């Protein structure tokens, strides 16, 4: 469902592709990016449910941020049709 009048559906596809890939990478590598202590990293690596919980929450938080940015983008970018 592309909302741009000038045939710019590729913008939305590119945006959501970027958002999904960035969120996945952030979810999987968040313990490295957030400077988690070595002791906590070991706890996360040993506990599989905790590891997936961390990945899920980091992915979800990142994706919600991208989604909210998209909403702002839609209202700022003038080529969108607001019907």
Write the topology of this structure:
Elements: H1 9-33, H2 38-46, H3 48-76
Helix pairs in contact: 1-3, 2-3
Give your account of this protein's structure.
Helices cover 76% and strands 0% of the residues. It is built from three helices and no strands. The chain has a domain at 35-78. It is mostly helical. It has helices at residues 9-33, 38-46, 48-76.
Q: Tell me the distance between the termini.
A: 13 Å
Helix content: over 70%
Q: Low-confidence spans: pLDDT under 50, at least 5 residues?
A: none
Structural class, by secondary structure, is: mainly alpha
Task: Compute the number of helices.
Answer: 3
Q: What oligomerization state is this entry in?
A: single chain
How many distinct beta strands? 0
Strand content: under 5%
Query: How much is the radius of gyration in Å?
Result: 17 Å
Give the topology string: H per helix, E per strand. Answer: HHH
| Structural shape | elongated
Mean pLDDT: 81
Largest sheet: none
